[in-house]
Amino acid sequence: QVHLVESGGGSVQAGGSLRLSCAAYGYSYSIFCMGWFRQAPGEEREGVASIESSDGITYYGDSVKGRFTISQDNAKNTLYLQMNSLKPEDSARYYCAADTRTCGLRTEGWNYWGQGTQVTVSS
Q1: Spatial CA neighbour of 24 closest among 77, 73, 71
Q2: Which residue ranges of the chain lie beneath pLDDT 50?
Q3: Rounded mean pLDDT of the chain?
Q4: Nearest by Cα to 97 from 29, 34, 16, 27
Q5: Where are the beta strands (DSSP E) in the chain?
Q6: From residue 113, how far is each of 84, 85, 122 by CA, in Å?
């Protein structure tokens, strides 16, 4: 089992930055890929970014390319999402997920999910 705990959410004005963190506890050695997803009220869950744990290959959603950066510290079993040039449409609850076999931005089928952290961007 892997337990994921997100942190770093908050409120920021448009154009500002936030960094989200996701700490993995438990059998983190089994993780092949970790990712960030977001969901706003009334909207479908969206894949934001993901990264393969062993070789660092990254995947980004079109809406965040050039603004968000996903990274990992394997020694600390922690995933990060640096979010710059934030827009009001980035407001959502952000979730961390981990998978033991595949990577990418699919929104279903991940093995483990965190509880999420809220990001609110005001105009």
Answers
A1: 77
A2: none
A3: 96
A4: 34
A5: 2-7, 10-13, 18-26, 33-39, 46-52, 58-60, 68-73, 78-83, 92-99, 112-113, 117-122
A6: 24, 26, 27
